[in-house]
Write a structure and sequence with these properties.
Bound molecules: pyridoxal-5'-phosphate
Number of helices: 9
Structural class: alpha/beta
Oligomer: single chain
Distance between the termini: 21 Å
Shape: globular
Order of helices and strands: HEHEHEHEHEHEHEHEH
Length: 220
């Protein structure tokens, strides 16, 4: 068994242990294996080991490797976890099954247009910039609940979840707690939070999916 596959099974085991520790149901947390910068030869063994949910942060990079893998493994679910430019909405709707990074009206409007045009409806999450970091994507926390409502009522989009990336230098717990509170206020069920360094904490705070890259595939 290769290192990557071994690390994948180790992460799966730690997720299961964290679910139990937090009193969550077994299988309550979906692992999104973040394969950005890695090639199909690195990804395929993880697919063959049983993983079906993957995350990529760039539309163009994903277009280079995922169409062939999705053809070979049709039950793959691909998540877009990186910032989305409106000129890439068409490609994003065509390729991704979940788009986690809606954070402004312009993107919501472009996605709505593409969903109508292509007749393909990825699941949609709103990204919240819980630390209000100027360089980071995501809607401001104080605008998040109203934005989810606008996505639904103005743009006609069914928003299923919220996503956040806490500031790298802060304790992530309060950010996860804030996202969970906003999800309750906005009436959305899915919480995408937690990465290689903090996914067990995120599970304790109610994550329904964790986005884990380097702990599986190694350093980028
Ligand atoms: C790269 C990335 C991850 C995975 O990060 P690791 O620390 O390698 O697990 C998760 N979420 C987003 C949005 C990312 O861009």
């Amino acid at each position: 068994m290769g290192d990557t596959v071994q690390q994948f099974f180790a992460v799966k085991a730690r997720i299961a242990a964290a679910e139990q520790e937090a009193g969550r149901e077994a299988g309550a947390v979906t692992l999104v294996a973040v394969s950005k910068t890695f090639d199909a030869v690195d990804i395929q063994p993880v697919i063959e080991a049983g993983q079906r949910v993957f995350g990529e942060n760039r539309v163009q990079e994903a277009q280079g490797k995922w169409p062939a893998l999705k053809k070979a493994f049709p039950d793959i679910e691909l998540h877009l976890i990186g910032p989305l430019q409106s000129n890439k909405a068409k490609e994003a709707v065509a390729l991704f099954d979940v788009i986690e990074t809606i954070d402004r009206d312009k993107i919501a409007a472009e996605l709505a247009k593409e969903v109508a045009r292509q007749g393909r409806a990825p699941k949609l999450y709103v990204q919240v910039n819980t630390g209000s970091e100027p360089q980071k994507a995501g809607i401001e926390p104080r605008e998040a609940v109203a934005f989810v409502k606008r996505c639904r009522e103005v743009h006609g989009l069914a928003i299923e979840g919220l996503m956040c990336i806490p500031p790298a230098d802060e304790n992530p717990g309060p950010h996860f707690a804030l996202l969970e509170k906003m999800a309750r206020e906005a009436g959305v069920a899915k919480l995408s939070m937690g990465m290689s360094g903090d996914y067990e904490t995120a599970i304790a705070f109610g994550a329904t999916s964790v986005r884990v890259g380097s702990a599986i595939f190694g350093n980028r």
